[in-house]
Task: inverse folding
């Protein structure tokens, strides 16, 4: 394999597992595509699928699967706790190996175009693929949700990137974009005081004046407080830097960091960079990691 | 690819690059075999080759290449600074992915047998493949070097594992074995006092009462002192543990660790484990590293 892309399509069905099975079938037994996970959530009524593989093969599978989702999901009767605007709600493409972000943007545009051409689903391009600044942020794109989309699409400012000014009657609207891999990361504090967790989360997150690529909050879990975050660009906001900053902030409140946790998958580079920092490694590159050479 | 083995054959030719080219040709354009590096050294008059790939394909390539080495290298006229006993001097097999050490031992035995059957080269099995305790250590196996081998092989204690009690007239004797990946690791100290480096090296190495899987020394380089080591089993003697111990010992002499360096390749796990330690990661496994899934 040479170029590898990751795609994490989210489908608005997390309860009827037969329907979910039909939707993910497009990713199975397909040359060049590997289905890494399929996580239906009943409360959200949503399924998050993670696939990796050859960019062309993955793009084809996504388009096919969107057609199935548009058939089996009826958004007019959909309910669930997670915001959503379409049967195939959001489709991010993520560069993993030997790929640039620009190449992922190209794939997003091609898939967006095909979703409309083949299935009649209007598409907004978002994040790195966005065509206007206000479409970068997925939350803004999705604002109004499925129910508000018919009116939103009439607004010239929200004319879809592909499609006309009306939704797909059952499948709604889809956001297709390109972004860096997300690292979901939690840091444990030896306190049961949620306020301390909230203050630390505010100190490290972008919106609170913290790191550019951190979205963070605090939760109580198993009797302790966890600072829970998404690192939206681990190359620019490193795991070790966030970890050490949380340790530093915790000291202020007389509490300690007891450990941390990666949720789901993270790229090798995110871990290796932390080793590099703590061991003061110089002259280091990915090429020194044996496994890098197994993937060529 | 499924199972991946690494092999690091050493050939007793490091000056005549045409001969080296003929020897490594066996590893090129061969399905399932990837030549990672070929490092001829003129002083040693020796070439270290690193290949990875499918176990069966790598084994075949090694046997073929040994035949070439036996043709182009004449040990009766060989000189060089490195100890050696054969044209293809030593052949270690190293488990990299989805392989046990036992499987590597089996490959070593098969290759050893074929080196004698096909090329008439007598073979000692060493390290994990050794058939007697005194053959575990390569230095003991090679003691006497090429020149001493005719006599050594007459000693019933040193009857080869494959072959008769006489050397191959031009290619000598070969050691074939199985071992863990070696991590070559250096730690820099902000001192020019070699004695301090030597004391620290003695404190951390197995022979000095230190860690079981560390072989270490001290050298002066670029005006500073470096503790230089081989970690012979990074799973049991971790990089971070050695690094922190050297930091601790350095303190005793009023010197500081300024950085460290991996020489050559090291397995991903060696780095990831250090990240795991410093970040206090729990619930962690290789499966959380995205790239693990690219190699299946």
Result:
């Amino acid at each position: 394999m040479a170029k590898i892309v990751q795609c994490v399509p989210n489908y608005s069905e997390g309860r009827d597992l037969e329907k979910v099975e039909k939707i993910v079938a497009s990713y199975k037994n397909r040359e060049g595509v590997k289905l890494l996970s399929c996580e239906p959530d009943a409360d959200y009524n949503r399924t998050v699928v993670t696939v990796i593989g050859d960019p062309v093969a993955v793009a084809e599978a996504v388009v096919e699967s969107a057609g199935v989702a548009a058939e089996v999901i009826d958004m007019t009767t959909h309910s669930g706790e997670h915001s959503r605007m379409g049967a195939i709600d959001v489709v991010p493409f993520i560069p993993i190996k030997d790929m640039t972000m620009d190449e992922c943007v190209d794939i997003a545009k091609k898939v967006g175009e095909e979703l409309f051409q083949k299935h009649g689903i209007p598409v907004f391009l978002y994040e790195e693929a966005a065509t206007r600044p206000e479409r970068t942020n997925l939350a803004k794109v999705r604002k109004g949700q499925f129910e508000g989309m018919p009116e939103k699409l009439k607004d010239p400012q929200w004319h879809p990137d592909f499609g006309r000014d009306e939704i797909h009657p059952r499948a709604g609207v889809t956001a297709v974009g390109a972004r860096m891999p997300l690292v979901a990361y939690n840091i444990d504090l030896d306190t049961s005081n949620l306020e301390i967790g909230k203050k630390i989360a505010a100190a490290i997150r972008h919106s609170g004046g913290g790191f550019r690529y951190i979205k963070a909050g605090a939760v109580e879990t198993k009797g302790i407080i966890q600072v829970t975050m998404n690192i939206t660009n681990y190359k620019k906001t490193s795991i070790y830097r966030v970890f050490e900053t949380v340790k530093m902030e915790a000291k202020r409140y007389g509490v300690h960091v007891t450990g941390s946790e990666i949720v789901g998958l993270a790229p090798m580079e995110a871990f290796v960079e932390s080793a590099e920092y703590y061991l003061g490694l110089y002259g280091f590159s990915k090429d020194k990691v044996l496994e890098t050479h197994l993937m060529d």
